[in-house]
Amino acid sequence: MEPRIDLMTNQLGAKVSKRIYGVNLAIKEVSLPKALLELIALRVSQINGCGWCVDVHTKEAAGAGETAARINLVAAWRESAVFTDAERAALALAEEGTRLADAHHGVSDETWGQVREHYDDDQIAALVSLIAVINAANRLGVITRMRGGSYDPGMFAALSS
């Protein structure tokens, strides 16, 4: 399976990618651990089957200090003992916000209540924005068949300049 188009070498694709990167920079300004943001992006990318994004967020999570056990267990976080209640709330939000078509309720009131227990409004805005943006990035990757395995940590910063 070969990539269909390289969005980074296409003028419009590169412009859109830079904007997505800019949104991610704004999200990272909020007081949430980078490792948590990477785990959320990783889980959404796993659900959506985006090999490129799984590669990116696995490596970025490791670079942010995440352990191999937590990175590997994020796919089965409900059956794992390595995540805090706050992290579980964020992961539930990520899953429900990604699987909108799979559930008639979208994000449940129960999950929203758990998120409200652990995060302030700015942090919630960052989580919701991250979930939306990574879902968009996953669609770009899956539609164009971007393959995982070649990401070098930090390469987005170099591409955005």
Order of helices and strands: HHHHHHHH
Sketch the major β-sheet.
Answer: none
Question: Which value, in Å, is the CA radius of gyration?
Answer: 15 Å
Query: What is the CATH top level name?
Result: Mainly Alpha
Query: Which regions contain 5 or more consecutive residues with pLDDT less than 50?
Result: none
Bulk shape: globular
Q: How many strands in all? A: 0
Q: What is the SS-derived class?
A: mainly alpha
* Ends distance: 30 Å
The total tally of domains equals 1
What's the architecture, going by CATH?
A: Up-down Bundle
Provide the β-strand percentage band. under 5%
Percent of residues in helices comes to 55-70%
In round numbers, the mean pLDDT is 93
Organism: Saccharopolyspora antimicrobica
Protein name: AhpD family alkylhydroperoxidase
Domain Carboxymuconolactone decarboxylase-like: 27-96
Pfam family, one: CMD
